[in-house]
């Protein structure tokens, strides 16, 4: 397939930006979505400009934004082959530490936003027999003390499996990417044992690059020095 199209939410930094660079190197045209337009535009210019990249503001918790993102993708490029529902953020552990407003925004972004991305892209992915990926977490495989963030990533694990079952028979592949600690803006101070965003991007591209009949459903990836 010549120049397939790869859509990434939460593309302005961290795992999203690293994946955009890796996908561009692999020959994909890109759709980059985030709330930070200046950083999106800088990344788009780096990766080929308007001919190769669509950069569009999208709040994943807003259904109208998600629909507009897919519509503009199809208008610009005519197809959609890979979708990476990556937008999300965390919170301090402890049920009395973060504000309830922060909690609400996190739950809406990490869970509802990912679900809206699935809903908005289902038809286009079915048409292309494409690939859906979601950013889960090691925290979505084991409960962490006082962590509502962990609960949101358990929900993303369920979203991935639910989407896989619903897409069954359509040719669409579904992969849950589950990183451990990653050196991203998620942390104020870099963890001692952390992956780089590029490490996670390679895992994404590994799943995407498999033969059409191979569906890598989950990739759990940690730094070799991470304990938990």
The CATH architecture would be 3-Layer(aba) Sandwich
Rg, alpha carbons: 16 Å
The CATH superfamily is identified as NAD(P)-binding Rossmann-like Domain
CATH topology: Rossmann fold
CATH class: Alpha Beta
Order of H and E elements: EHEHEHEHEHEHE
Estimate the strand proportion. 15-25%
Number of helices: 6
DSSP strand tally: 7
Largest sheet: 7 strands, parallel
**Mean pLDDT rating:** 93
Structural class: alpha/beta
Shape: globular
Strand order of the largest sheet: 3-2-1-4-5-6-7
List unreliable stretches of 5+ residues. Answer: none
Domain unit count? 1
Describe what this molecule looks like in 3D.
This protein has 228 residues and is of the alpha/beta class. It has a single domain, classed as NAD(P)-binding Rossmann-like Domain (Rossmann fold), CATH 3.40.50. The chain has six helices and seven strands, in the order βαβαβαβαβαβαβ. It has a seven-stranded parallel beta sheet, with helices on both faces. β1, α1 and β2 form a beta-alpha-beta unit. The longest helix is centred in the middle third of the chain and has 29 residues. The radius of gyration is 16 Å and the shape is globular. The termini are far apart.
